[in-house]
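Marked as duplicate of an earlier ticket. Keeping the data here for the record.
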Amino acid sequence: MTELRSTPLSSRHTSLGAQPHRPPTSSDPKGRQRRVTMSPVGSALHDIFGAPLHLYYLIRFKTCAMQRAFDRARQLLEETRGEKRTRQKEGFPSTERTLPRLGSAFSNPITQNISSYLGARNPLAAPIDPSTESVWLFDNTAYRPIHPYPHSPQPWQASFSAAFFKKGTGKDVSKVVADIADKVGLKETGSEEERERGERTIAERLQPFVDVVAPARWVEVKLPNGKVQRLGPGGRSGTSQQIVTLGADHSNGQVAETDAVRPELTPHGPMFTTFAEPEGWMVISGKSMPLLFTISYPSIIHPSIQAYPGPADIDDTVKVTLTPSPVGILRTTFLSAPTVIESMPALYTHIQSLLNPTWFYLSASPYNLYPFLRAFLHANFPKGTILLRDASWMDLSGFFMSLTQGTEAYKTGRMEMVHSWLPKRKVLCIGDSTQSDPEAYGNIYREYNGWVKKIFIRKVTDVAEMDNQDKNSPERFEKAFRDVPKDVWQVFEDPNDLYAAVDALKAT
């Protein structure tokens, strides 16, 4: 036994005529080989079993690669003709091939990656480690389930979502920052001080993309009713979602706070739960994420969310003209300061005061951007639940795909979920013409006849090249809203034109 320990198995393989066994490698997108860092367990297995351990890393790589392939394939299958045409015209596929990866598929042990597919029944799940991991808690809306027969009010319940990350696992982003700065033309404009400030902003906004997700983790939180609830374990994308019963002692419109039992685990603060009775009004506001910061997306700021400032030399009130292109998305996501369309905050405030609705903000963005979007939303507009894609992309090409592929199917699916929670609410849908809001809202109106009472679509004319596409054509809107009564949907350019229509909803 002593001799076996002192003689590495790789040496014995060599003596038998085999090639020396080396730690496995993987190729990055440019074909360069990189050494895979093994966990202590993997290292021990490597010393004991040698060459067969290649199977361990093959499974580990295939597990992560298969998940990325599945997510991409799903979005590709859901891609509409219009999305495909826009992606080809604006050069998304060619740009995506040049974008760097932001993380590694080998950062988590294989036991976590594989067991994460077991979901809530994962026997290998573990509590979050405060020293190395953190959790994001997502705002939500509580509802009372509708009983099929006359029945006393049901207890409140809500879908609780959390995302688990490993702290400090993001690689050096300097090269990625330089790549983005070059693509958006940062180095060609402004002073050296302004360029340095812009690069710092890009680095800060990149951080949620480079932090590695932590699958198979759970966290204990303190609910509004005082009870302690376990959230998780997280699945393959590091997120968990579960229905939690909250009791009966809450009122319509109440906003309650839920935080981790150990608050230091939640870097972006607690989650807020808004309670919504079965009947009343509800607003679904769906905006195009690439144009979020320059086109009327509402905003609401928890003091704990201050980590994503825009360049100080950009005035929030200045309107920036963008293109629905890869460069435009990079600029608005990682560099530009948030701005809102004039008169939209006032319109949303009027809707809130008149209808007292429950608010849902629907975006095709991946959940990596949640802290940024939440801070922006919490600054100027009514509080509500932000609905995002549950994929955590470790590369910018996947991020682009989230925003440009399968958005209609995704938004329709999310609204179907909201309908299952609040089927008796009267719904006002607000969106714009840049993405798939008209088609998704039309789908929902036809699927749930009578649920959607009014649809407002902002015709976006202040974005370069929109007029060169068919997104603002009357034919597009007529097709999107086929079988939807003309008095239900309205296309507008100036938010001030909607007040009369909003006031009329009061009597509906």
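See parent ticket for discussion. DSSP finds 17 helices and 17 strands in the chain.
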